[in-house]
Amino acid sequence: MTAAILTAEWFHLGLDAYYRKFDVYSMAWQQEVNLDNYVASSASYGGPIAIRRDDQKFLKVQGSGQPIISIFSGSGKQIASFKWTRRPIVHMGWTNEEELICIQEDGMVVKHNMFGKYLHTFNISQKVQDSKVIDAKIFTSPQNFTGVAVMTSNFKIFIVNNIEEPKTRQLSELPRSGVQPTSWTVVSEDTTEILVAREYELYRLKQDEHHTSAILEPDITNKYTSIIKMSVSLNARHLALFTDSGYLWLGSTDLRTKYCEVDCDNVHRPKQLLWCGNEAVVLYWEKDTFLAGGEKENIFLVVGKHGEKVNFFYDSSIFLVPEIDGIRIVSNTQHELLQKVPESVQKIYRINSTEPGSFLLEASKQFQRGSHKANEYICLVKNDLEIAVNQCIEAVGYEFDTEIQQMLIRAAQFGKCFIPDARSDIYVNMCRLLRVLNAVRDPKVGIPITITQLNYMKRRKQGILKRLITRNYYYLALQIAKYLKLPEKEGTSYILVHWAKYKVSQSHLEEETVAREIADKLGYSSGISYSEIASTASEYGRKKLAIKLLDYESKASDQVKLLLELGENTPALVKAIESGDTDLVYMVILKLREKMPLGDFKMTIRNFPVAQSLYIKYCKEHNTQALNEIYIQEDDFSAQAETFILESLDNKKNHMKDALLTSAQEAYKKGRKDLYVAMCDESVKLIRFQREVEDKIPGTKTKFIGKSVHDTCKLLLDMKETKLVEKFKNDFKIPEKRYWWVKIDSLAKQKNWTEWKSFLKLRSLQLVTPRLSMCVYSTITGQKLSNI
């Protein structure tokens, strides 16, 4: 191919600015679709195209007359179609995830996937619903979320910055006037703002706390009465204004810089006004003036930042799709791409170019012909061969034509042969990218993506694999992931999980077959979550399939959690016990305790000794009542009694001690534990005596309860309650010697030495020798024996 042929589609637009418009596809729909009668919208990055009948035109309709939305690939291959049975649509567009959103006149936003399946609906605001939406815009927020802005019949503007988590904000209102807005657009850079034109006035509406609105004064030289169309570049830094005098004003979004002002030779409102990258603007008029032959004339005007312009004409209607590096032009027959010629491509193909890459390409051509001139061209660039090779490798990425790709790749490969120790990684990576790009650009797939868009999607974590998965091209996605040697988690495993989710959504397939097929395909690879697939199956109402898939899940926690959600309580408990994770078993037990009737719960865990043991341990620490209920169920009387006794030892339950010990006594009676029955009886008797003493003697509240027999007797002696002491001694059969020791101790502490000595003398024969009495006295008083 000669340079003249390669540059035939180029046109000059400014100093060194070249643009090109070339065919990408011949549309498969050309026998079925006439864009004159439809409203169309396409997703960015070579996304699908949605069309619906234009309500503003009178057309002959067959059937029920209900609107039909049809979705096509970039090559015109039909993907899906569905009837629209809701309220009239004001605006139709796509999200960043290639989901179709339709904004109704009542403020409802309806979302479908590209196969026409309904996904979600939300209402922008009650205020919007009460009025009526007359226009709407879909934009990308600074955080890369899809947002929606609507204008109501009373000219108020509401925005939602993220339709996944809709939070509606009303922007500041325009100053009161009887004049209607003539155009408006969204500016989404650091924050989201709205530019609104009301005839010659231009306002900036913000979403701050003060709801401020500022009037702007663009530097438009030529007279005008109204701004009738405006557009902001995708990077939100450049603004285009079209006036009713037919002039186009280009400048910065903040209006501080003016680029140019151009007469477009047309005073009608353009149907579309879009930025082509950041250095040119495209205007499209769909005229109603019929030419001879009955065809409609459609004008396509390209205007550069410095005022240069180029006209194109189309026989039929077209619609334009803005991209980050150009504009896609879709007509009845063709799908074209308009873009600025990349610098590396200009250097190689430009006529009379002296760039190293241009000479290397010519050398490669001559070498293919077997001409000696190849050596002459190589000699011209022998000092810049590495630059020449890199120019050819960079340029090939921007080409759609496979013949041109092969020509440039051969040139790069030819140049590498003359570079010692040449690096091959850049060359190899580009070859891989080209194969991927050509695979997804194939008309059967229909994604006309450029290498610039592909690299941008990588930075925004919206890889090409996700686009293929959305279209159900799983095999192609797998081949690309393997070819690019992506990590298994980001490549093969990620794709297979989505394939499995798609598989479980097919209700006509048998569950056993689907489960086996998924298990055979996925195996136990890392990064595979069967619980995630099972959860999807559950959402589609395929419970049995979900349970079968969970048998392959390696993580017990995920397995158990979903089994509980599915109501499979016993299998969940079995899996938790088999895992050996006590925390997981506790979680299942407590969930079952909340969900199941008490009787069913007790019978369920009774069949699993491990679960019952853990539940008993839990109840001992947190719920003694439930613990006692378990012992009653099992007729374990000793354990019941122990529970009551342990509970009685709690100082906070002193007022219940006798009742608790009585319950323990009854439990021991049922278990025929006579010794323990007697012990409980003595304890109850002691507590009741202590309570009586507390009631009789003022100021002794809470002093006696909980004391032992020894301590109670000593406390009574300290309080000099002689009668009560005697009664207590007889009732509880305290041995004489123990009683004497307690009394001696009490008298010593009271320093009642007279009575202490007399008591010793009275009891000396039975108790102690005088020498031992003196030792006791010395110990209690702290005095030396020599001083006594």
TrEMBL record:
Cellular compartment(s): Late endosome membrane; Lysosome membrane
Record SUPFAM superfamilies: WD40 repeat-like
UniProtKB keywords: Endosome, Lysosome, Membrane, Protein transport, Transport
Highest taxon, organism lineage: Eukaryota
InterPro entries according to UniProt: VPS16, Vps16_C, Vps16_C_sf, Vps16_N, WD40_repeat_dom_sf
The UniProt record lists the keyword Transport: yes
One annotated GO molecular function: actin binding
Keyword Isomerase carried by entry: no
Segments forming domain Vps16 N-terminal: 7-428
GO BP terms, alphabetized: endosomal transport; intracellular protein transport; vacuole fusion, non-autophagic
Family: Belongs to the VPS16 family.
Protein name: Vacuolar protein sorting-associated protein 16 homolog
